[in-house]
Amino acid sequence: MQQKITPVIICGGSGTRLWPMSRSQAPKQFLEKLYGSFSLFQLTIKRLINLNTEYLKISEFILVTNEEYRFLVVRQLEEMSISSFKIILEPTAKNTAPALTLAALEAQIDDPETLLLCLPADHVIKNESSFAESVNKGLKVGLLNSFVIFGIPPDRADAGFGYIEHSTDQSTIGNYNVIKFVEKPSLDKAEAYVLQSNFKWNSGMFLFKAKLWFDALSKFKPDILDLTTKSFNARTYDNFFIRPSEEYFNQIVGESIDHAILEQHPNLPFNLSMVLMDADWSDLGSWQSFWAISEKNINNNVFVGDVVSIDTTNSLAVSTSRLISLVGLDDLVVVETSDAILITSMKKSQNVKDIVNLLSLNSRPEVNTNPKTIRPWGWFDIVDIGDTFKVKRIGVSPGASLSLQKHNHRAEHWVVVKGLAKIECDGEVKELNRNESTFIPKGKLHRLSNPTSEPLVIIEIQSGDYLGEDDIERFDDIYGRI
């Protein structure tokens, strides 16, 4: 008989510590080829699929994200030919405890006794067989009505992680009793914990029955349970998406899973157990952690993209569009995108979030917008911009279509550089091949589509007195954005 597990993936985080590659509109979990051939989100999905055996069945995915990322999620699932999923859209960001509560409410509709396997979407796990072994141990513990947290053996003193103190004795089915949590200790304390065998990193991965979560919320955070339940009960449906009520959800005081519930231990209304996961894990929480898990050259450097170096050691350089040249450096991080460059010492790379906060205070667009902006129909990036013009490169996915729209402040010139474009403008429909062009006058209804199974790329030249992305009036849209 197969035991069913319902996977819950929390994928609404902004990943600020990997700026400038990770931005609020395109965070690290969805970046293509940040680590390997798939995004971190897709690697999480693949890891779960591989858990399926004759004894264990991974049921329909429950994904919790937000409006901004909804089409990124759908697109990356479709790229993997995943068709069985539910996407819950948080009305506002309220941290992980309300997000997990939404998922648990949805999961118990089909099976009140199902076990939930809750995973963040942005982890790297190199040893998938050890991951699967730990999940199977956790399954046995979870079936005994314990709440399971997966602990990672620390390989260094790191003040950026939470720590779990656990019993020294392991049970016959492979779990340890949790003694206490320590949330991001001082470096001195972290160094002391690493020297002790009964301290592990808190991975942020959990396995439990939904009823245990509701029992704990009812005791310690009844406001979160009440408002989230009211929001969920007033939900609406929109194609792939489940939309809880904003009215109730916006009233929630957001908290993390750890702070809201797990740190209440030992007063929790259930047994809290830790299962060891020694699976070559990283949360990619900084550029230093990216360097740590990456393959290094003879000088202990990690170079990605167009990088040359002389007399440089123990460093990371990531180039996305330009040559990076390094001379006589050590312990350095350099990350280049087309609109921003980060330079920091390796040891200070955790503090990148402070730069992001500073940029936010100054309303800098580099915090939010990525040079390559993802849309449900494809993507665009900005090649050049001036007071009265903007040049874009636009990629339209096979079979995709932009909305039927008009602009009140700008005209557009389109040149096809790859593929075949279908153009609707002012009631006229035509097709353009490579090297052919057309003009879209200001105020005219128009639509761009890709009718083929191959990618379409065009160059768009905008001209007008206002070139903002909000100068779009939509009249028809297959993605429901009207």
Task: Please provide a written account of the structure.
The chain is an alpha/beta fold. It has three domains: 3-282, Spore Coat Polysaccharide Biosynthesis Protein SpsA, Chain A; 287-361, no CATH class; 376-476, Jelly Rolls. Helices cover 22% and strands 34% of the residues. It is built from eleven helices and 31 strands. Strands 21-22-23-30-25-28 form a six-stranded antiparallel beta sheet, with no helix packed on it. A hairpin with a 4-residue loop joins strand 19 (332-336) and strand 20. Helix 3 (96-110) crosses helix 7 and helix 6 packs across helix 7 (222-233). The protein is globular and about 75 Å long. 40% of the residues are buried.
**Shape designation:** globular
Largest sheet: 6 strands, antiparallel
Question: Under CATH, the topology of the largest domain is which?
Answer: Spore Coat Polysaccharide Biosynthesis Protein SpsA, Chain A
CATH class category name of the largest domain = Alpha Beta
Radius of gyration: 24 Å
Classify the beta-strand content into a percent band: 25-35%
Number of domains: 3
Looking at the overall shape, the CATH architecture of the largest domain is Alpha-Beta Complex
Q: Could you give the order of strands across the largest sheet? A: 21-22-23-30-25-28
Q: Looking at the chains present, what oligomeric state does this protein adopt?
A: single chain
Helical residues, percent: 10-25%
- Average pLDDT level: 92
Structural class: alpha/beta
